[in-house]
Amino acid sequence: MTGGESFITVVSGLPRSGTSLMLQMLEAGGLPVLVDTERPADVHNPRGYFEYAAVRALGRDASWICEARGRAIKVIHLLLCALPVEHSYRVILMRRDPLEVVASQTAMLGGDPPGAPSRERLAEIFSAQLDEVVDWLSGRPEFELLQVDFGDAVERPREVAVGVCGFLDRDLDVKAMAAAVDRSLHRQQGEGSV
Question: Which of 54, 45, 14 is nearest to 187 (CA)?
C-alpha cells in the first residue's frame, strides 16, 4: 500500500471540539470515513457524530483497527494511547477554547451536572489533558500530528482544508471540504458563553 492507504487517519480532541466537523470535511473531500449508525444525529450535532462504536472498547479490543487503514476515524483524546503501535497514524487533533468546550457540553447536557467542578476548573482539566496528549504523541514514532484550531476551521475552512490535505498527502476536494462547514453551528463562542 502507498500514500494514504499506508496509515490510519485519526481525528481526535476533546468532546465538543469539532471532531465531527473535521470528519464531515474529510468525507466531503473524498476520504472514506469509518462510522456506524449507533449514535444518530440530533439537535447538538445535526449532521451526525461520525462515531464508530468499537472505538469505545479500544483498550480491550483493537482487532478491528485494520478496517480503518486508508480511512478516517474519530478517537477521543484519552483513547489515543490505546491505538496499537504496529500501525501508522496521522492524527488531526482539534483544538477549541476549553471554556467553549465546557459551555457546549453544558448546553448538550441541559445544564451543569450536580456536584460537577466549576466550568473554569473543567476547562483547566481539559487543557491539561490535551497538553499531556500532545506530549505523549510527540514521543511516538507511529504518530504524526497536526493540530487544527476549531475557530480556524469555521472561519477559514479553505485554508484549513489545504493544510489537512498537505498533512495527509492526499488530493482531496478542498472546495467540497470548505463547503461542508456550516458557520451557524458554532453556537458557543467566547469565554464562558452558554
Answer: 45
- pLDDT digit string, tens, across residues 122-179: 999 999 999 999 999 999 999 999 999 999 999 999 999 999 999 999 999 999 999 9
* Structural domain range at position 127: 3-184
Place of cell 458554532: 186
What is residue 152's DSSP assignment? Answer: H
Q: Percent of the chain beyond pLDDT 70?
A: 89
Query: Does a structural domain hold residue 189?
Result: no
* E-assigned strand segments in the chain: 8-13, 72-74, 89-95, 143-149
Q: How far apart are CA 97 and CA 102, in angstroms?
A: 9
Q: How many domains does the chain have?
A: 1
Report the chain's C-alpha Rg in angstroms: 16
